[in-house]
From TrEMBL:
This is Uncharacterized protein. It comes from Pelagomonas calceolata. GO terms for biological process: vesicle-mediated transport. The lineage of its organism: Eukaryota, Sar, Stramenopiles, Ochrophyta, Pelagophyceae. InterPro entries: Sec-1-like_dom1, Sec1-like, Sec1-like_sf. Signal peptide: none annotated. Residues 1-22 are annotated as: Disordered.
Length: 215
């Protein structure tokens, strides 16, 4: 098995209190195939409203294991392939190790951006950013006259999908076992520290014109 080489929650303020700025896991938006070509949407409220004993990293790790890996394994047989884009790889790295993946029946970790060998007898678990580029790459795996690359697919996005991205995934509905918006788009670096992965966040002065960097 390969390990993840490169690394989910989004700050969702609910008030003016400083404590409301902490990342929270309030729910997952679940989209599943319905009648072959349609997607039905409902809300699945998680029980992760209280911090885990190990802090933020342990909380995110638990969410990924339960709502991504174990949820996919429950609908699959045998081993699974985990396919990550660059953004998802940065999110997963701080919270999951090789042993965690093997325990959840993940035998291979692949890069979405690279050419991949097909495994038609294995389930693919995609974790990707909710961008048009990444979603298009996922959809492209299942397009064309060639045989399907995997037995079926579970797609998880780090943030909410737009209408365009949602439409791009409709063509793979026949093989789509789950489509879940995780809303986990930050890096859990430590138990009480996270990063939004915005390199320019402190380079531009408040109120400055776009593109005007600090000296």
């Amino acid at each position: 098995p390969k390990s993840v080489e490169n690394g989910f929650l989004r700050p969702r303020p609910t008030g003016r209190d400083r404590s409301s700025l902490r990342p929270q896991a309030t729910g997952l938006r679940i989209l599943v195939p319905y009648r072959g070509t349609r997607l039905a949407l409902h809300q699945l409220q998680t029980s992760m409203n209280r911090p885990a004993a190990g802090g933020l990293r342990e909380l995110v790790r638990h969410i990924v294991q339960r709502d991504v890996l174990r949820a996919s394994a429950a609908k699959s047989r045998g081993w699974m392939v985990l396919v990550l884009d660059a953004a998802a790889a940065r999110v997963l790295t701080p919270v999951l190790g090789l042993y965690d993946l093997v325990e959840e029946r993940v035998t291979l970790v692949e890069s979405l951006e690279k050419k991949r060998q097909p495994f038609p007898d294995m389930t693919a678990v995609y974790v990707v950013a909710a961008t048009s580029e990444s979603v298009a790459r996922v959809a492209a795996d299942w397009r064309g006259p060639t045989a399907d690359p995997y037995a079926d697919a579970h797609v998880f996005t780090l943030d909410a999908l737009g209408d365009g991205e949602m439409g791009a995934l409709r063509e793979m509905a026949r093989k789509l076992r789950a489509l879940v918006e995780l809303r986990l788009d930050f890096l859990a670096l430590e138990a009480r520290a996270f990063s939004l992965d915005e390199p320019r966040a402190f380079r531009v002065a408040p109120g400055a014109a776009r593109g005007a960097a600090l000296d």
